[in-house]
Amino acid sequence: MSSKYSCASHPSDPVRKVELTIRLSEFEIPPMQDVLLVGKRAPIGPEAVRRMVDALTPEQYDILYLDHEIFEAVVLKKSLLKFLPQEKFLPVILEEGERVAAENTVVKAQVNVVVQVNRAVDL
Question: At the top level of its lineage, which domain of life is listed (predicted)?
């Protein structure tokens, strides 16, 4: 079966482009990075995540249970919270997570924090 579909463009057609950024990295144990957002109906729940994290990387992550529309819990790498207080960081990561996640998903996030400091010194 052949198709006679023509995809010739017209000068008035808008130009559409897609830009891809692909980040390939080594598989990590545990399979999470800086943040894990656990949906309310995700195949793995917060307690299973806690056991995995405690067994493989003890004392490196905090698990926070949430009263949230989509997420049941968030798992945060403790070292992130040295750069940015939880009360400042959590709303941002939840807002961005809501844009890509559903109740049945677990989303991992890599977070890069850059602290910028400008200081003046009296001469």
Answer: Bacteria
Closest of 61, 62, 69 to residue 95, by C-alpha: 69
What span, in angstroms and rounded, lies between the C-alpha atoms of 19 and 52? 35
The CA distance from 31 to 70, in Å, is 21
Give the amino acid at 25.
S
Spatial distance between the Cα atoms of 77 and 82, rounded to a whole number of angstroms: 10
Q: How confident is the model at residue 4 (pLDDT cuts 50, 70, 90)?
A: low
pTM attached to this predicted model? 0.71
Longest CA–CA separation in the chain, Å: 82
43-66 residue pLDDT tens: 989 999 889 888 888 899 999 999
What tokens were used for 51? Answer: 């056991």
In angstroms, the CA 35 to CA 62 distance is 10
SS3 of 79, please? Answer: helix
| Rounded CA separation 30/95 (Å) | 24
Tokens of 64: 């926070």
